[in-house]
Write a structure and sequence with these properties.
The structure is a single chain. The chain has about 300 residues and is α+β, with helices and mostly antiparallel strands. The protein has two domains: about 1-65, RNA-binding S4 domain (Structural Genomics Hypothetical 15.5 Kd Protein In mrcA-pckA Intergenic Region, Chain A, Roll); about 80-290, Pseudouridine synthase (2-Layer Sandwich). Helices cover about 15% and strands about 35% of the residues. It is built from five helices and 17 strands. It has helices spanning about 15-25, 30-35, 105-120, 145-155, 230-235; strands spanning about 1-10, 15, 40-45, 45, 55, 60-65, 80, 85-90, 125, 135-140, 160-165, 175-185, 190, 200-210, 215-220, 260-265, 275. Strands 7, 8, 9, 10, 11, 12, 13, 14, 15, 16 and 17 form an eleven-stranded mixed β-sheet that branches. It has a four-stranded antiparallel β-sheet with strand order 1-6-3-4. The chain has a two-stranded antiparallel ribbon with strand order 2-5. The two termini are about 30 Å apart.
């Protein structure tokens, strides 16, 4: 556990609950009362557990937030965890969430099992967004249905960036892809004209560097459609390395070189902005067909 404190000075007399409601407008009165009753609120250094307690002008109010930053023996790297959300570094080769009734593994299943063995209370976990099985990177889960809904409601407002190794060399160093995406009968996503069922998709990109006959790109999702980056790069003749589904060279059989490297969100409970960054996984830029494995 890591204790992170936020401190405020009272400008006019008020109840502790009313004071907190001003500084945490996104939190419900019920949530604020829990913060107080759990001993997270101090007045001039003394823990106060009564929501109706009077706080006076000039007093200092502190909120001590408990953040879990590094559990031991996790099935994959935990990037961030607190009372409401958890962010992991999902490895390639692992589903985000298995199909109903599936006996196979998934990030959701492994993380929930892990939390159930390390938490004193019942472990709850809710999917916020997904990464394709072959894609690695930042993946966020909520610890309650309320938090899940808040994150989903605002997901389009958050910043999501990916690194992709694309085949060939792009003509322009920066640009924007725009198209309408539809699911085909073969379950592949395709760009096409605007029509019923098609969803608008937009991705911006910039070249990071050239690696032999490949190009490392940083891409930002303006929208968040299924297979969006994969389809947009295939559309211009530069599919993601290893993405045989969308026309990449078949000599790379398994791992797709697409990695969720950056996520910026507004915390659904505290309203603070959080930025998460992770490096490329080992072997991402190493292209040897005989070594093509999930790592």
């Amino acid at each position: 556990m890591l204790n992170q404190s936020e401190t405020y000075t009272v400008n006019e007399n008020a109840s502790l609950l009313d004071f907190l409601a001003i500084h945490y407008p996104q939190s419900s009165k019920t949530s604020l009362k829990k913060m107080i009753s759990h001993g997270s609120i101090g007045v001039n250094g003394k823990i106060i557990k009564n929501p109706a307690a009077l706080v006076r002008k000039g007093e200092e109010i502190s909120y001590r937030r408990h953040v879990i930053v590094a559990r031991q023996n996790a099935p994959f790297r935990l990037v961030f965890e607190d009372e409401w959300i958890i962010v992991i570094d999902k490895p390639a080769g692992l589903l985000t969430y298995g199909e109903k009734g599936s006996s196979g593994s998934s990030a959701y299943k492994e993380l929930k099992e892990y939390l159930s063995t390390t938490s004193k209370s019942r472990a709850e976990l809710f999917v916020v967004h997904r990464l394709d099985r072959e894609v690695s990177g930042l993946l966020m889960f909520a610890k309650s249905e309320e938090i899940q809904e808040k994150l989903k409601e605002n997901w389009q407002e958050f910043t999501k960036k990916y690194l992709a190794l694309a085949e060939g060399s792009l003509k322009n160093k920066t640009g924007v892809f725009k198209s309408w995406l539809s699911d085909g009968p073969d379950y592949k996503v395709r760009s096409g004209p605007q029509r019923d069922g098609a969803k608008y998709a937009e991705t911006s990109y910039q070249v990071v560097k050239v690696v032999e006959n490949y190009t490392l790109l940083e891409l930002q999702l303006v929208t968040g459609r299924k297979n969006q980056i994969r389809v947009h790069l295939a559309d211009i003749g530069h599919p993601v390395v290893g993405d045989r589904r969308y026309g990449a060279d078949a000599k790379y059989e398994r791992r797709i070189r697409l990695h969720g490297c950056y996520l910026k969100i507004q915390h659904p409970k505290t309203s603070e902005w959080h930025e998460f960054r992770i490096e490329l996984p080992r072997g991402f830029l190493v292209l040897h067909p005989e070594h093509e494995k999930y790592k």
